[in-house]
Design brief:
Layout (H helix, E strand, L loop, with lengths): L6 H22 L9 H28 L3 H8 L4 H38 L10 H10 L6 H33 L1
Helix pairs in contact: 1-2, 2-4, 3-4, 4-5, 4-6, 5-6
Length: 178
Amino acid sequence: MASFGSSAAARDSSATAAISVIEAFHYFGVGHNLTLPLSILTIVVIGAVNWLDMARIVRGQTLSLKNTEFVEAARACGVDHRAIIRRHIVPNLLGVVMVYITLTIPQVILVESFLSFLGLGVQEPQTSLGSLVNGGVAQMEAAPWLLLIPAALLALILMAFNFLGDGLRDYFDARKSS
């Protein structure tokens, strides 16, 4: 059982509980009767679901960093909590956050493209790679390039972001070890 003796533990438990409650909304279909345009609703739903993972990663990394030697040394020197967060915690979180974002972007692009391919995402007159692939499937025999070009472009974009994320991870891991 968690101890609520300190205000930091209470805030942490409250934030974790709030994230879990918000995550439960998407499992139970709460909010499915909204009257927003489908493209805006798609963006909001994808963002609402994906920030939860980011919040958990940042929380875990922050809890890990707050017990490191340089934070303990700053605390022993009498540095203010806000200054510790600004000078020590946030700069060490940026690498993890940037890598996670570059590895999450392909996931979001793929989800949006899949929803648009099924007709549940971006609607006309806007376009999406998923809707272009869907249009290409209908014309596959007469004009195969209408399918191949958007599909190849989607694959290239996803691979580029994955390579960027891998490169950033290698860069920040090498920087930490040296």
